[in-house]
Write a structure and sequence with these properties.
This is AGAP002113-PA-like protein. This protein is 46% helix and 15% strand. The chain is an alpha+beta fold and 126 residues long. It starts with 7 loop residues before the first strand and ends with a helix. It binds protoporphyrin IX containing FE (HEM).
Length: 126
């Protein structure tokens, strides 16, 4: 399935799957249903139940999960967080555009300040 076809969930949707027999979690804006994986998780079911219904990106990253783990989590992927609630905004175009605007504005300001200083200096010389 192409990433664009992923089912869209809100953070609240995921939050309702927070029971030991119904464990969903959010890791890097993707939604995982690990209910069937609890028993198999090498790190134990307890840690997964603890973050049930929650955002667990930092917990997942902190463990330093292996490439194998990252590969195997794909089978539990059920969807992704709706764009408005994502942490990493997909619209990187908007990000870079605003970054560009900031850069241009910053540069203009710096040039302006530089010119002002030059003018001031040349003015005082007279
Ligand atoms: C879909 C989600 C997850 C998958 C597929 C997964 C898979 C695995 C795998 C395969 C391992 C064995 C070590 C490795 O290969 O890195 C592991 C270890 C572990 N995982 Fe997960 N994990 C998931 C989510 C989480 C989350 C959310 C937490 C914490 C809240 C967590 C905590 C741990 C811990 C503490 C270990 C043990 C590390 C150790 O003993 O060295 N895992 N996990």
């Amino acid at each position: 399935m192409a990433p664009t076809e992923l089912k869209q969930y809100s953070i609240a949707d995921v939050a309702s799957h927070n029971k030991p027999n119904d464990v969903w979690m959010i890791i890097h804006d993707k939604v995982y249903d690990v209910t069937k994986f609890l028993q198999e998780h090498p790190g134990g079911e307890e840690v997964l139940i603890e973050v049930a219904g929650k955002e667990a990106s930092s917990e997942f990253d902190d463990v330093g999960h292996s490439t194998d783990a990252k590969e195997s989590m794909k089978q539990f992927l059920v969807g992704e967080i709706i764009e408005a609630e994502r942490k990493a905004k997909k619209s990187s175009k908007t990000m870079s555009a605003s970054a560009r605007t900031a850069l241009v504005a910053g540069s203009a300001l710096a040039i302006g300040a530089g010119l002002a200083m030059i003018f001031k200096a040349s003015g005082s010389r007279k």
